[in-house]
Amino acid sequence: MHHRNTFKMVLHHEVPLDPAVSPTETELRIKGIMEKLDQLIPPRPFTHVSSTTSATHSKATLLSPQDTYCRGDQLDVLLEVRDHLGRRKEYGGDFLRARMSSPALKAGASGKVTDFNNGTYLVSFTLFWEGRVSLSLLLILPSEGVSALWRARNQGYDRVIFTGQFASGTLQVNTDCALILNSSAELCENLDTRVQEAFY
């Protein structure tokens, strides 16, 4: 499938910003989502790796274990995360991946992770098939790393510059591009109308 970008010439130094122009519905939705994510991913500064989440020191406990389970039952695991010094974490935000598998059946499914934001997580698996299953809880990134990546993602857009290659027929132009317009020069705006994202 070929996606065609829309290019339009904008004379930024001649077009005054109109504060009365309201944001589009898409921009408002994106802003709302970003604000919710800011609340879900609070700053988690740390001074040493020993205070970050450790998979080795964390503890997983099967809740209400039974001798046998039926297809469709739910298997719940309580995960208590600890740091590298063995201290229980008092907040959540870790990026965890929960998987259930039966290699002999070539079957696998994801578990649902519920973060209680106090260092404990409920990991729920629905038993979709009969037979033995293996459970896996993988710490992809500690909450401190998630927070650092989120901060990095939201800072410095005005300093991101990349080389864009634009072609039309036999004509080809390479030029510096940015995510934020920070120039009064005559520039092209590449607007993806599907998601209302632009670069200059």
UniProtKB/TrEMBL annotation:
InterPro entries reported in the protein's UniProt record: Ig-like_fold, Ig_E-set, NXPH/NXPE
Q: Which residues form the signal peptide?
A: none
Please give the PANTHER family that the UniProt record associates with this protein. Answer: NXPE FAMILY MEMBER (PTHR16165), NXPE FAMILY MEMBER 4 (PTHR16165:SF27)
Q: What is this protein called?
A: Uncharacterized protein
Q: Which organism is it from?
A: Sousa chinensis (Indo-pacific humpbacked dolphin)
